[in-house]
Amino acid sequence: MDIINKWKELELDYKKYLYLKELSDITIKKYCKDVEQFYIWLGENIISKEKVLEYKKYLKNRYKIVSVNSKINSLNKYFEWKGLEEYKVKSFRVQTATSVSNIITKNDYFRLLDCAKKSKKWKMYYIMRTLAMTGIRIGELRYITVESINDCQIEIYNKGKARVIYMGEHVRKMLKQYCMANGITNGFIFRGSKDSAISQKTVWKNLKNISIKAGVLQSKVYPHSFRHLFAKEYMKVSSDISELADILGHTRLETTWRYTRTSYDEKVKMLDKMEL
């Protein structure tokens, strides 16, 4: 298709532009993938505001609103770069959720750990514990190295921002034991092939497999779910939301509050405890 070939000719320049904007490789790949999806849908038609609005409706009928807004954002960024700002469209308004339903509970977490232990999936066992005990993002797992666990805090640069990962004595001791048991003396602790850091895709795939065996809903088991679990458990031992924001690397407290929301079932249980 000619239009796809034209996009391929532009893609390299667009990637360079995004790179100079200091966006991460994952973000750049996502933006380009979303633009290519639009061009494939467009086919031989000419880009127009009407066509973009039609595409927006097409997305709404096939994806969740959060995903649709993400794709629209990618397109709008591309239109800005190409000087076609008149084609930009508004994202859908989303009501702020007051509860969460797709986050693992503490019981789910222990079931996943028990399943990994029985299946001798030790690497995933320790990855799940590390995610839950530190609240790090999956993209930050590569910063957990043999050299770094000797410190209580690790300075990292991620998502265009510098931040600190805090590590308690328990998690550092656990990781040192894992390294000793597996003969890991330097570099990445959690490795994939050729001694490189384990990929996010591999972690996702293994989590899904473990969730099936453990009988935990797959929709609740994904790397970021452990970050939410960490936030909720942290607030049980400390009511300082600003401290939690610092640990999670948030610049806005509003973002941190989203991590501490309870599920629908938890809200109902709390209501039932009211003696009125």
TrEMBL record:
<dbReference type="InterPro" id="IPR011010">
    <property type="entry name" value="DNA_brk_join_enz"/>
</dbReference>
<feature type="domain" description="Core-binding (CB)">
    <location>
        <begin position="5"/>
        <end position="83"/>
    </location>
</feature>
<dbReference type="InterPro" id="IPR002104">
    <property type="entry name" value="Integrase_catalytic"/>
</dbReference>
<keyword id="KW-0233">DNA recombination</keyword>
<dbReference type="GO" id="GO:0015074">
    <property type="term" value="P:DNA integration"/>
</dbReference>
<dbReference type="Pfam" id="PF00589">
    <property type="entry name" value="Phage_integrase"/>
</dbReference>
<dbReference type="InterPro" id="IPR050090">
    <property type="entry name" value="Tyrosine_recombinase_XerCD"/>
</dbReference>
<feature type="domain" description="Tyr recombinase">
    <location>
        <begin position="99"/>
        <end position="272"/>
    </location>
</feature>
<keyword id="KW-0238">DNA-binding</keyword>
<dbReference type="GO" id="GO:0003677">
    <property type="term" value="F:DNA binding"/>
</dbReference>
<dbReference type="InterPro" id="IPR044068">
    <property type="entry name" value="CB"/>
</dbReference>
<dbReference type="InterPro" id="IPR013762">
    <property type="entry name" value="Integrase-like_cat_sf"/>
</dbReference>
<dbReference type="InterPro" id="IPR010998">
    <property type="entry name" value="Integrase_recombinase_N"/>
</dbReference>
<dbReference type="GO" id="GO:0006310">
    <property type="term" value="P:DNA recombination"/>
</dbReference>
<protein>
    <submittedName>
        <fullName>Site-specific recombinase XerD</fullName>
    </submittedName>
</protein>
